[in-house]
Every structure is written in structure tokens, then in C-alpha cells.
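Continuing from yesterday's entry. The apo prediction looked reasonable, so today I'm repeating it with 2-oxoglutaric acid included to see how the binding region is handled. Same sequence as before; SMILES copied from the compound registry.
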Amino acid sequence: MSQLTKTNRVALDLSGVRTNGFQQIPAAIPMAQLKALRQVAQAFHARWQQDNQDFYQTNAINSAYLTASAYLQPQARQWLFDFIGGQLMKDVISPLFGSGCGFLNTQLFFNPLNPEQANYWHRDGQYHLDLQQQQQILSAARVLHVRVALFDEPGLEFIPASHTQWDTELQLDCRLGRNGAKPSDDLPEGQTVPLQAGDMLLFDANMIHRGIYGMDRLALDILFCDPLAELLQFARQDCLPDEDCLQQLVWPDIFRVTANILKKN
Ligand SMILES: O=C(O)CCC(=O)C(=O)O
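Holo prediction written out below.
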């Protein structure tokens, strides 16, 4: 039974997202919805793999842009928009963003083909921001991952509160792979959150985290963010629903915010 039923969803305490940077919501997705999401994700994954064989065979651990029309049939795409812009997502996410938020992207995480491939500690921003910018963004711009575990999975590991706190020397050496440290080294503060199918896990993309590979993981991450051009410049117009679809959604605002910012860019 989902804990996010109409009667108790208001009482859900998500203060862990603010204080620790992450919070698990066990059994958030009802089974019927979970089965439909699995079908959509598996259809996408099969077609994505065909088109990205080299990347998949080499070292891929995720794909992205599920809501574009490249790999999903219109009905599956519509279904995904219904989920992202639906009541459950609105109830969980909108209270966490005081002045509104935008839809950024979707990603699908799976295991690397090579079982020896190591995972890596990182902050999401480190691949396009320098260290000073990464530090500044901690208090200035927020991207929130909503992970939906489609199957049981080992989950993720986090450095609690690192969404507001800068790295220790060891953490920085580790995620940058310098001074003899490797990005896959264990860190003493790490806290692992294993997930069961149907769980949701919210986490701040600014925090230091790493995926734990293994089991038959297939995880759908939906990314929301502050309504800022510097973040939403990474969204894609072709991943947004059209006007007909928007009018059917419980929570069209997240897509409209993104569309408006993309239009201005
Ligand atoms: O699950 C993974 O492999 C990594 C997830 C991750 O790093 C992310 O979502 O930013």
C-alpha cells in the first residue's frame, strides 16, 4: 500500500531533503503505476541500446531524454508526462520549492556491462563548473533528483549534508581522483540507501553521491530545479509536452516554467 494516499500525503515529512540533502519515501508508487512505468522504461531502454551500442558496450550507466519522441511511442510518452506532471509528483515536489520549479530532464540508470567497472563519487555540477562555481552554487541553485526504483536495487550512497557543505580534503581528492585517491574509494561519512521497487528517493544534485551498481537495477530519475535560466538551459524543448497534453495535466506548471525560460534563451 502506498504511503502517499490521499488521506496521509499531507502529513509526509520531507525535512530530510533540506537537512541531509536526501530522503527516501518507501513504497511511494502504487503497483499498477509501477508496472506501467517499467514497461515504458524497458521499451525506451531497448531502443536506446540499439542506437547506442558502442557507448553501451564501453561504459554507459545511464541514458537520458526519455520524454523526447525518439524512442517512445506517443502513448508511452503521454503516460510519462502524466506521471511527471501528475498529482503524486505535485504533492511531493512542489512544497520543496518555495517559488516554483521547472522540469529539467529524465535519466535512466542501469548497470555497466562490465561488472568490474567502478562507480564514482561526484557532485552533478562538477562536469561543467569549476571548483569556485561548484562552491557558490551550493546555496544558490538547486536541482533535485527524484529517483523511482523500478526494481529492487542497491541504491545510492551519499555524504549527508554535503548539499550545503563544501568537501573535506579527502572528499575533494576522492571525487577529483587526485593525490593518490580514486573516485571509487570508500569515504568514511558515506551513507548507503538501498531501494525496493516502488520506493522514491529524493536527493539534491549538488551533494556528493555515487550510484551502487548491482542487482537488476533500472532506475528512473526525474530532475526538477529552481526556475533559473542557468539551470534550465540544459533542458530540451523536444522533451516537453505539447499544448493539448499540457491541458490534461494536474501539474502543467513545471513544463510551462521550462518552456518559458527556453523561449527567452
Ligand atoms: O545511480 C547511479 O549510477 C548514479 C546516479 C547519479 O549519480 C545521479 O543520478 O546523479
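Comparison notes:
- The longest strand covers residues 102-109.
- The beta strands are 22-25, 62-64, 102-109, 143-149, 153-158, 191-195, 200-204, 209-211, 219-225.
Will overlay with the apo model tomorrow.
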